[in-house]
Write a structure and sequence with these properties.
Blueprint: H1 2-24, H2 29-46, H3 50-73, H4 79-89, H5 94-121, H6 133-153
Helix pairs in contact: 1-2, 1-6, 2-4, 3-4, 5-6
């Protein structure tokens, strides 16, 4: 019951974050903190062992943060995007994180092409702004949906 509640709450937070990012091009720090703080409750609800599983998720989240910080440093992602992706990495297994990052990257590429084409068609000057929180949400929601369907398949 708690697992389902936390998963549902995370899905709603992701939908909110994606919608908000399309409007403001920002992801609020408090939202990232909530996602990160919910992860240990989720681990407890599914009986995830602290060693090595929870520690591995923390390590992967740090790795995701530092890799995506490189994208932030060259202006490809916002700071909120980097923090949200790292917080979400706490929720997924190593394989789930790989799937999350691949789906997020594909969605981000498609989203970037759409926003770039729109930018050009409107003959706007300057850098194209992309609400990458949408791609992050798609990657995470994909994982949550897969977990949900696997629950009933097995």
């Amino acid at each position: 019951m708690l697992t389902d509640f936390l998963t549902g709450a995370l899905a709603l937070i992701l939908i909110w974050a994606a919608w908000r990012d399309t409007r403001t091009f920002t992801i609020e720090n408090r939202l990232v903190v909530i996602v990160a703080l919910m992860a240990p409750l989720f681990w407890w609800s599914v009986g995830l062992p602290v060693w090595p599983d929870a520690m591995m998720r923390i390590g992967i989240a740090l790795l995701v943060f530092f890799v995506l910080f490189g994208a932030f440093a060259v202006g490809m992602m916002g700071g909120g995007d980097v923090k949200l992706a790292a917080a979400l990495a706490l929720w997924f297994s190593p394989v789930g994180n790989l799937r999350f990052l691949v789906i997020m990257s594909i969605a981000g590429g498609i989203l970037t092409l759409i926003y770039w084409a729109r930018h050009k068609s409107l003959k706007k000057e300057g850098k194209v702004k992309v609400p990458y929180g949408v791609a992050i949400a798609i990657g995470a929601l994909w994982n949550l949906a897969q977990r949900f369907f696997n629950q009933f398949a097995g």
